[in-house]
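Reply to dn_fold:

You asked what the input looked like. This is it:
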Amino acid sequence: MNSEQGKMSAGADKYKDEIRIEKLEVYAYHGVYPEERKQGQIFLVNAVLYTDTRRAGEEDKVELSTDYGAVSIFIDHWMKKNTCYTLEAVAEKLAREILLNYDLICSLDLEILKPEAPIPLTFGCVSVKIHRGWHKAYLSVGSNMGDRKKYLEDGIEALKAHPLMKHVKVSELIETAPYGGVEQADFLNAAIGLETLLDPEALLEVLHEIENAAGRKRTLRWGPRTLDLDILFFDKLVYESDTLVIPHPDLHNREFVLKPLSNIAPNYRHPLLGMTVNQELAELEKSSLSV
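and this is what came back:
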């Protein structure tokens, strides 16, 4: 994975304003050793909350901002109520809960410091620091077997019900001829936009679980399927692994992808091609007419 592939903050960091909480002292019960989890110790928490403070600043209304006092109390309560073996788990789980409970925070930096760590040497502190946030993803969904509309609806409802997704937006359904040269029934297709706390590989796993629940069989490439869910874009990420390529490598050649996507994200710009969805669709339609 190259440096660009490792950066997933383009969507999560849409706001650059910061609310900072520094050296919040919490007495909690986290650690590998039993005595740490039983007796407890002091932890320090640093948090940078990325949000939009403009309206709160212009209108001078606290309800338009994130209450840093409430977040501090939330951190204190969560760390005292829960117990983890590692600082990594404390940071990961706490960051997720903050993002799920405070809608105005789009992303955050969270550092958990352990000044009394059981190290038999003189040291200042040990800590784990992470960056987490909401990501914008666009998906395509299609079906050409059985009750196509029901498969699509059930898949979309599964996304809406997932605890780490929000603001699920769905395009109009369109019917299209099959793509790839395999003789089969026509498809119903749609595009989906959503925000998620999942990383791309974890999102892919969830999509596969939803497909499997719909009885999806992967026996023939470009063959018929009860439900097909693909990741098109993830923030402005350019990413490649053994199982996933983002942006989807063939989306600019697929009218059944671009047409519904233009319904919900016409001006979304491809991070590699530099064209908006509407521009890609117009280019594809133009090339189709010239053939």
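The radius of gyration is 23 Å.
Hope that clears it up.
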